[in-house]
Amino acid sequence: MALRDLFVRPSSILMVLLIAGSLILAACGATPQQSAPVPTQAGAAPPPTSVPATPADARPQATGRTRLVFFGNLEPASIDVITMSGNVNERQVAAQIFETLVYMDQSQQIYPGLAREWSRSDDATTWTFKLVSGVKWHDGTPFTAQSVADYFDYIRDNPVGSGPGSLKAVIGSAKAVDETTVELTLTAPRPDLLIELADPGMGIGNAAYLKRVGADAGFNPVGTGPFKFKEWVRGSQIVLERNPEWTWGSPLFKMSGPPLIEEVVFRFSSEAQTRLAALEAGEVDFVDLLPFQDVVRVRTDPRFTVTGVLLPGMPQMNYLNTSLAPTDDINVRKAIIYATDKQGIIESVYFNMVEPAYGPLSRVFPEYEPALEQMYEYNPEKAAQLLEEAGWLPGPDGVRVKDGRRLEVTIVENKGWNDWVYVLQANLQAIGFDAKVLTTQGPSNTEAIASGKYHVPAMGDVFASASQMTRDWHSEGYGTFPSGHFLKGEDGARLDRMLKEAETEIDPEKRIEKYREIQKFIMEQALMVPIFELYFYVAHANNLKGFVVDGTGFYKYFAPAYFE
């Protein structure tokens, strides 16, 4: 699970999103309460300038209740922002502990974070950030420009997670010009840098602390944010406590001074009904991934607020591993795509509350390639024909065979995220696959996908800029993304070149064309099975107010939250 997400966009696209969202919700008798987020394109990125701090609102009158319980679907494997894998559940927790240089709201405006001003060179390779002063790490040591320079140096020189890992190859040097000024020099243009830096996965990590304690930083992190790490009871909960010294918050939060909430508790269960039951029993205040079948009912309950957002990024999908037989055969990969009844999945698993996906990029992006919608239809007869052309013929038990080998594939499920995999399994079995499902969860899912041992891992990603496709598809791989398991040889080198050329393209129109070519190439090579655009429903207690949602619509910041 994945979101990044921070960005400005043409009003016409916003209207498309609002209309589409309304149609979907209207179909189930619901009313949208929040518009879909709108990622920006490179040319629409905020200009390199300072953004005046907006006056902070008066502190709200809280009720005295100061403990917030959030019930998510997966327990993180780490919550140190430098090393965590990229799992969205990790970022959700880390977003309360660490702060980013800039933030982005749901109207796609960039706000100051730890950086109060910024500028860049015309070629987008040199960026200068003026930091807020008086900041301290949670261990009491001062946060300075050297802290930020050390963070970027650490990313460049050490193995890191998928968040900062997406910048690793492009970091040239970082220099503390003075106590509050940092100059970052990149080896290639990065027109989307502010969008990337606003991702909760790009919180400024404490490199000195990480060097001192090593992997333990992932379980006892030290940030600068509004909440400090308190304890982690494995298999149960993570507890954060208010940082009483936090007075330098972003103007995005519209509130000065430390948080009103004294404790934020993150609990986890992959069982959606367990999370919902806890909310309805008053045991927790916020649940994500509300069960689709319960959205309408919960929305009519006056105790709760339900919000649905189309998350930008890579739609929910299944990778097709080209490093393994039989998915190393393009005809087999195409057969899997043709055999997948995504409309049946949408109807039977998601109650018509999501939309079909057609490629590796969500349709909310200006770079989205609409021609993909006509590339593969649901056609099991054509799928069977492709398998026969590839030499896979029906065996005595209905499973196809070739040269004495059975047509076997393993689908990897991340429990709590990929409920469609059993329909996909049935679709493949219907045309002669021996399709198995391997159920994993959290760290075991990360390990399974990174291993490259499985043919059809399920996945998705959340991000706000098309440039983030690099981490999903470049052969170098970032963090634990399985992109190193794809095309080899000239085809793989071509995809790598296309991704790098697109992410450094400053001209908006050329950039759109380059990303559309990438999407077509990925689908022509049949590297994935697009399933559906991720609509994400959450519910929270009505008296929980003030929290801020980031530009993707996924991540919540609880610094300004309070109970009314």
TrEMBL record:
Q: Which UniProt keywords apply?
A: Signal, Transport
Q: PROSITE patterns, alphabetically?
A: PROKAR_LIPOPROTEIN
Q: Name one GO biological process term.
A: peptide transport
SUPFAM superfamilies in the record: Periplasmic binding protein-like II
**Domain of life per record:** Bacteria
Q: Which Pfam families match?
A: SBP_bac_5 (PF00496)
Solute-binding protein family domain span: 109-456
Q: Name one GO cellular component term.
A: ATP-binding cassette (ABC) transporter complex
**Family matches, as InterPro entries:** Peptide/Ni-bd, SBP_5, SBP_5_dom
Write out the GO MF terms.
peptide transmembrane transporter activity
Keyword set includes Transport = yes
Location of region: Disordered: 35-59
Leader sequence residues: none
The family assignment reads:
Belongs to the bacterial solute-binding protein 5 family.
Record's protein name: Extracellular solute-binding protein family 5
Name the source organism: Roseiflexus castenholzii (strain DSM 13941 / HLO8)
